[in-house]
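Note to self: keep these together.
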Amino acid sequence: MHHFINVLKGTAVIIGVAYSVFFVTLPANADVFSIVTTGKLTVQTSAEITGTIFNPQGPVRVKDNLRVDGSVYRGGAKAFTVADDLDVHGTLSRSKGDLKIADSIYQLGGGQVTFSGNVDAIGGVDVTGANLTVGGTVFVVDVSTGLITTASVDGTSLVDGSVASADIAVDTITAADIATGAVTTTEILDSTVASADILLDTIAAVDIAAGAVGTSEILDATILTGDVAADTLTSGNIALDTIAAVDIATGGVASAEILDDSVASADILLDTIAAVDIAAGAVGTSEIADLGVATADIAASAVTTAEIAVDTIAAVDIAAGGVGTSEILDGTIADADTNGALTGASLAADTLVAGDIATGAVGTLE
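Structure:
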């Protein structure tokens, strides 16, 4: 068993296994089948290992290129450092410590590259030839478009304020995505809220601008008494010829509400006009129906000669004994008026003349 193998110059060609307990140092362009060492492995420039490298403890340092046709098993906590290219055709196994490559790592085959720990890509990650997937189908980025086609991203995965409108697919935000109370007037496009968007019976008076409700907004026949403030309706608010009797309270129409000279006979209830309703001197002959004045309608001694039409008083109009000498015009009583009713007592003394006595009317008895 060798404690060390140290070839510092020239070319080392080892057909078998280079085995060392302490360390192995290979010169430039070393061609080795396999290396097993519990110490350190140093390659001055490049090395081509057709077998395997097994180095469980010491550090591995390659100053240029390292080609391994087999596998590399690296244990311990020391570093694995390659200054340029690392070309491993088998398995690269690193249980502890760092694997450091100054230039590039390129996988020739199509096998799976597995990292059990975290991958910190300081300069970025370029993916070509296939989609970038995380967790199978949890997160998938389409290699041809760069767009995320399948993703399970929650709020903890995103930086606050980092999602812009352009990041959101059109018509994909649903009600469940919006927090309660998150949508205010600034989030709503003007003139876009329709009737179907408003919950029934939720619009209150404070939601309606002053003067915003016109006749087109009010359903026909839906305004009730309770909707109208006291003393707010004027003539201009009422359509012509639309107020009916049922709209007027009992006793609601006073003299001030009645247009002068507008009350006709048809407007007056039969037998309801009393004396107090008629102004003094307001009833003339044209207001009295023919034969409509009865005795009870005439005050005592109220009818004078001027109220009586000429030649209209008949015998039936005169009470028995109602005509005395003062009512008879002198010299107007004819024989036909006496009808044999005159007696001597009816004659004034010394008033009869011959012409008053009919021929043959005076006999022995006279």
